[in-house]
């Protein structure tokens, strides 16, 4: 693969886009925004959003599809309110405050709250959550923190899992780290990349090339081959690339930027 090619651009949000996620089992993707909405799109027919969820009182900061239930979408806002949405019923099914019900995340509450959280792919047994310069790995069933990954020196902006669920990547403005969570080397940092001037912000493993990590920067994407430890820069947006997502079903990568655009790459 030499580079990425733009497939389509999605434009409906009125303010900055903060996050983008593909459904694990379909061509749907979802976006969140400072405009307090969550939108769901069909990547095969992206001319307009198929759902627009409203109800958050403040900017929506992050969102994620449950790996085993493609109808379930969750989102969180700047006031630590978490909402569960049914895509099929086009309604909010649950609302709670993470600070009030942070049963599985007492360490994160003490550090001042999350910047991002992601379910482990396929089974959803583990949850990766970033707060300040630490990534915590929780066992969702037992509600315990099983790993605390602490080698970043600056706040972590983004976390992502690889397709196997054995590796998690974390991004701060000056570095990207990949951590092994498989048997035998759990919690070890196995790959590291320092920025070359353009500060890092987001990341995602490429759906078709497991050794390739796509990193979102200001206006550009960094493509990092972790095995060869080589990287290349691709011009992409007119603003900061706040979030990235990948779709195993389509082989596409989505980039969401502060320029109010989502771009699809293949």
TrEMBL record:
Pfam families: WD40 (PF00400). CDD domains: WD40 (cd00200). It comes from the Eukaryota. The keyword Secreted does not apply. The keyword Repeat applies. WD repeats lie at residues 10-51, 53-95, 234-266. Keywords: Repeat, WD repeat. One of its GO terms (molecular function) is transcription corepressor activity. InterPro entries: LEUNIG-like, WD40/YVTN_repeat-like_dom_sf, WD40_PAC1, WD40_repeat_CS, WD40_repeat_dom_sf, WD40_rpt. PANTHER family: TRANSCRIPTIONAL COREPRESSOR LEUNIG ISOFORM X1, TRANSCRIPTIONAL REGULATOR OF FILAMENTOUS GROWTH FLO8. This is Uncharacterized protein. It comes from Marchantia polymorpha subsp. ruderalis. The lineage of its organism: Eukaryota, Viridiplantae, Streptophyta, Embryophyta, Marchantiophyta.
